[in-house]
Amino acid sequence: MHLPIRPRRNRQSPAIRDLVRETVLRPADFIYPLFIQEGEANTPIKAMPGCQRWCLRDLVTEAGEAHALGIPAVVLFPRIPDELKTPAAAECHNDDGLVPRAIRALKAAHPALAVITDVALDPYNSDGHDGLVSPDGRILNDETLAVLCQQALCHARAGADIVAPSDMMDGRVAALRSALDHEGHQAVSILSYAVKYASAYYGPFRGALDSAPKAGDKKTYQMDPANAREALREAALDEAEGADMLMVKPAGPYLDILAALRSTTTLPLAAYQVSGEYLMIKAGAAAGWLDEEKVMLESLLGIRRAGADMILTYFAKKAAALLL
Ligand code: PBG
């Protein structure tokens, strides 16, 4: 048959498929999220099979293994003991707190590994919200910014390379940039969770850190999953306020948002494959219904193809080991 255009010619052998491949996954694309806790022992996280809350000694080992696989960065999430949680969340800027100690230990052992920290009050706040809560239950914006600045400064003093505000308060990127610069931390980058949706996919993470809101939900600060134009507005604001990199979260169900942002910003884009996305693949594989490795790599490739330069994923180590 005379058929001059045959797309299958470009798929006919591994060699030709290699030549025409548009997107590649590399260990250098991954940011590895790590949960940390006080004490000398690790605790497996029941709701997130394959993940642990690490004690600081083993955190350093785990991060070193990840770095040796080519992963350039880790991001830390602390489990704060209940007795240190207060309505003012003051533990978030204690220079001897869990996160600054973890940063110092990581930078001492692996100076070339980039350490990213989450800037938000939820692990420290007895109310379980990302911002301060007023007596009548409102999430306070401007009062929260002052505390977030103290938290980011505490991380910067300990040696964090990148601070990542995940709280979705208005004006936080500008506030953090100015606080960091005033203390001489011009080199500390801001990776803004610019577009963070109020998502049910965060459920397992909140279980891991015991950080679910005590009352209400996060819908007055995290975005409505129905909205896409609003994502462009949030991203443009954070860019104007001085963000160095922008994030979309969750990743898999929001690939349209990533693609839209890719065409409207020149900033590097991150996407967070969150706990619920991870768990769906783990659960499907545990039931014998999915090939874990193949679905994992395909899910990550899809996030890259949609426009993410870097992906926060609990699969980072496993995926990097397969891609080496
Ligand atoms: C909190 C924070 C959350 C996640 C990262 N930082 C949870 C939330 O906003 O309630 C979720 C990550 C995941 O589900 O893997 N500031």
Task: Give the topology.
Elements: H1 14-20, E1 30-36, E2 43-44, E3 52-54, H2 56-68, E4 73-78, H3 98-109, E5 114-119, E6 132-133, E7 139-140, H4 142-158, E8 162-165, H5 172-182, E9 189-196, H6 203-209, H7 229-241, E10 245-249, H8 255-262, E11 269-273, H9 275-286, H10 292-306, E12 310-313, H11 316-323
Parallel strand pairs: 1-3, 1-4, 1-12, 4-5, 5-8, 8-9, 9-10, 10-11, 11-12
Antiparallel strand pairs: 2-3, 6-7
Helix pairs in contact: 2-3, 3-4, 4-5
The chain binds ligand PBG.
Name the features.
single chain, 324 residues, alpha/beta, 8-stranded parallel barrel, two-stranded antiparallel ribbon, binds ligand PBG
Structure description:
The radius of gyration is 20 Å and the shape is globular. Helix 3 runs parallel beside helix 4. It is of the alpha/beta class and 324 residues long. It has a domain at 24-213: TIM Barrel (Alpha-Beta Barrel). The model has no long low-confidence stretch (mean pLDDT 97). Helix 8 (255-262) links the parallel strand 10 and strand 11. The strands form 2 sheets. It has an 8-stranded parallel beta barrel with strand order 1-4-5-8-9-10-11-12, surrounded by 9 helices. The chain has a two-stranded antiparallel sheet with strand order 6-7. It has helices at 14-20, 56-68, 98-109, 142-158, 172-182, 203-209, 229-241, 255-262, 275-286, 292-306, 316-323; strands at residues 30-36, 43-44, 52-54, 73-78, 114-119, 132-133, 139-140, 162-165, 189-196, 245-249, 269-273, 310-313. The site of ligand PBG has 11 residues, from helix 6.
